[in-house]
């Protein structure tokens, strides 16, 4: 590596492990990123097309010479927009398939006692059933749950009409969507339409391709992701604030360490039940361990942290380093953001990498199918595998000391509750966003920004998230966060109550009064649907559209197709969105202008690109202040 570890990550927990990896000749994501340089210029600009076997075709942009059209005649706008649209569709499908799995799990909880799942939040179940016109009078709770699950599953492929959750958006937003013909219909249909229309010889108009892509993205945010979040809350409980520990220091030398990594709470919730099974704990003790230490990684870690206070071990770029500690007895994974490299790293230690989903097998890993029909039983088999591996640990163990404390679990319900407590319900009907609206209107809070998304070697690990969050809270902007951004913030201490010391006066006062940290953990990436709903409620309460609110989104270190889908539905929902890494579209001037400019006049939201967190903060704050001026607040 050509530089010190400090220029690769701003998380000190990683340095000694990076060194250990180097000494033990373990290759990590940073090594592979370096070996990949220079990265392909055509791909970087979105100008390589492999949509048919006449290709691959690439458009030469950097010089006068070279082809300006693909063999079929597709130009840079067509090629770049088709590539982007397909990525958005893939991201939308990942989130939505997650939502579908949760709906299936809810159905099993209702109909199949073997599954071991139980519906936890009856109140939220009944309220959703009512919203969807499902009969709740004199009905058995299990039948209501089954009907809600079935209705949710029908959202994926219903032949007519539009998605039900669209009704939750402000009227003005729905009008814009209808006018632009992007109102989502059925989730699978909207995703399929992107694949069809980007097939060779179909849609060649970049604006129309983006219309189809925006509809598929909205199908994610206001469809698949929202179904995932709402049904997870019903099945596993609405998140509440918990104080937890985060970073690789949560691994324990004397206990069986089981890292759960991936996305779907259907698996992690079952694993959580299994690690508390007295027989398995006894078995762990027989192996010489003090107990079983379950810790989370990436979004599935967010899910069980916010519902159960399970420690968050690390984000996307720490998955290999967790294994490099030598102390992980099993890393259990389901879907998404699991580096295939893990099986190579695991091979160098005693760690068992266990894949569980038929959708994600990795050569070199052990596959132990997780069945929702008998969730707890299959989880127990997986945990047993981890427990039995404890005795195989080798001598080369190093667990970093670094870990931070912070509060996680700010669902909308929890945020509204926290505000209610201090503002007292005599002043306003309880359970509304009025206190939040008041704080924004009075200017004590200048606005709110969601910092979300992944890690990417193009940005110094965690720095994009942490520096941006610090700048914003210093300027009285409340930060909410999900995904790997949430890990970065909690590791940096920004979710502790002490972080108030880093805030401007207004935000510090609010945090003091309401007893919240200045950076609120709202969950996993699918939980960005919570943010959509909060914005929607806020807009309705203030009698404006989402686009008028002094809020913004930021994805400083994004990398996944899911993040592209998120960014697109957030922009199409009216929110200014700052990206720290440029999407692969810059080869098309028209598409780039469309995303960073033209969409503003249509949807109110638009993309901006800035990799320097301080500069990004400046731009975000000036956007927030501009909105305040228009609202005369
Ligand atoms: Ni879904 S999508 S790296 S885990 S946030 Fe983390 Fe979050 Fe990006 Fe993946
Ligand atoms: Fe080339 Fe057109 Fe085929 Fe793409 S679709 S590979 S541009 S011929």
Automatic annotation (TrEMBL):
Reaction it catalyzes: CO + 2 oxidized [2Fe-2S]-[ferredoxin] + H2O = 2 reduced [2Fe-2S]-[ferredoxin] + CO2 + 2 H(+)
Cofactor list: [4Fe-4S] cluster
Entry-linked SUPFAM superfamilies: Prismane protein-like (SSF56821)
Positions bound to [Ni-4Fe-4S] cluster: 263, 299, 337, 454, 484, 525
Residues holding [4Fe-4S] cluster 2: 49, 52, 57, 72
UniProt binding sites for [4Fe-4S] cluster 1: 40, 48
Enzyme Commission number(s) of this protein: 1.2.7.4
Example GO molecular function: peroxidase activity
UniProtKB keywords: 4Fe-4S, Iron, Iron-sulfur, Metal-binding, Nickel, Oxidoreductase
InterPro entries assigned to the protein according to its UniProt record, in alphabetical order: CO_DH_a-bundle, CODH, HCP/CODH, Prismane-like_a/b-sand, Prismane-like_sf
GO process terms (BP): generation of precursor metabolites and energy; response to hydrogen peroxide
Top EC category: oxidoreductase
UniProt xrefs under Pfam families: Prismane
Family per record: Belongs to the Ni-containing carbon monoxide dehydrogenase family.
Subunit structure and binding partners: Homodimer.
Name of the protein described by the UniProt record: Carbon monoxide dehydrogenase
Organism: Tepidanaerobacter syntrophicus
């Amino acid at each position: 590596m050509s530089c010190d570890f400090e220029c690769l990550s701003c998380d000190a927990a990683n340095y000694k492990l990076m060194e250990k990896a180097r000494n033990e000749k373990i290759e990590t994501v940073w090594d592979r990123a370096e070996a990949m340089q220079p990265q392909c210029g055509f791909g970087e600009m979105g100008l390589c097309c492999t949509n048919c076997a006449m290709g691959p075709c690439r458009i030469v942009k950097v010089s006068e010479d070279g082809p300006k059209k693909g063999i079929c005649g597709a130009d840079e706008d067509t090629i770049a927009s088709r590539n982007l649209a397909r990525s958005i569709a893939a991201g939308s499908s990942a989130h939505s398939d997650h939502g579908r799995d949760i709906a299936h799990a809810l159905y099993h909880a209702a109909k199949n006692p073997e599954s071991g799942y139980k519906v936890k939040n009856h109140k939220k179940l009944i309220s959703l059933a009512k919203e969807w016109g499902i009969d709740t009078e004199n009905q058995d709770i299990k039948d209501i749950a089954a009907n809600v699950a079935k209705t949710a599953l029908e959202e994926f492929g219903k032949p007519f009409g539009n998605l039900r959750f669209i009704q939750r958006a402000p009227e003005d937003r729905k009008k814009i969507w209808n006018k632009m013909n992007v109102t989502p219909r059925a989730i699978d249909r909207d995703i399929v339409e992107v694949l069809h229309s980007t097939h060779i010889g179909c849609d060649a108009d970049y604006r129309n391709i983006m219309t189809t892509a925006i509809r598929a993205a909205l199908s994610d945010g206001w469809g698949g992701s929202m179904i995932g979040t709402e049904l997870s809350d019903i099945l596993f409980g609405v998140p509440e604030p918990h104080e937890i520990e985060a970073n690789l220091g949560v691994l324990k030398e004397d206990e069986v360490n089981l890292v759960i990594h991936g996305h779907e709470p259907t698996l992690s919730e079952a694993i959580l039940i299994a690690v508390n099974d007295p027989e398995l704990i006894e078995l762990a003790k027989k192996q010489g361990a003090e107990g079983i230490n379950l810790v989370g990684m990436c979004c599935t870690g967010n899910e069980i942290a916010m519902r159960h206070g399970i420690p968050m071990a690390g984000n996307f770029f720490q998955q290999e380093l967790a294994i490099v500690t030598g102390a992980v007895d099993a890393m259990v994974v389901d879907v998404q953001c699991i580096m295939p490299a893990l099986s190579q790293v695991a091979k160098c230690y005693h760690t068992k990498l266990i894949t569980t989903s038929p959708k994600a097998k990795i050569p070199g890993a052990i596959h132990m199918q997780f069945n929702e029909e008998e969730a707890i039983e299959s989880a127990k088999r997986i945990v047993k595998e981890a427990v039995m591996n404890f005795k195989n640990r080798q001598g080369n163990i190093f667990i970093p000391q670094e870990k931070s404390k912070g509060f996680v679990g700010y669902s909308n319900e929890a945020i509204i509750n926290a505000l209610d407590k201090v503002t007292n319900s005599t002043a306003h009907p309880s359970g509304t966003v009025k206190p939040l609206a008041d704080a924004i209107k009075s200017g004590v809070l200048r606005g709110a920004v969601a910092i979300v998304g992944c890690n990417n070697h193009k940005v110094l690990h965690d720095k994009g998230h942490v520096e941006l969050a610090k700048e914003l809270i210093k300027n009285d902007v409340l930060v909410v966060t999900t995904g790997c951004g949430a890990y970065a913030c909690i590791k940096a201490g920004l979710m502790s109550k002490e972080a108030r010391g880093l805030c401007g006066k207004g935000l510090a006062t609010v945090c003091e009064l309401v007893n919240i940290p200045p950076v609120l953990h709202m969950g996993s990436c699918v939980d960005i649907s919570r943010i959509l709903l909060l914005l929607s409620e806020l807009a309705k309460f203030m009698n404006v559209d989402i686009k008028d609110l002094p809020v913004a989104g930021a994805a400083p270190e994004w990398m996944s197709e899911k993040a592209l889908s998120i960014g697109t539905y957030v922009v199409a929902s009216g929110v200014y969105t700052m990206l720290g890494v440029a999407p692969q579209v810059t080869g098309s001037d028209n598409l780039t202008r469309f995303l960073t400019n033209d969409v503003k006049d249509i949807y109110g939201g638009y993309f901006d690109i800035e990799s320097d967190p301080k500069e990004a903060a400046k731009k975000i704050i000036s956007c927030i202040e501009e909105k305040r001026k228009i609202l005369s607040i």
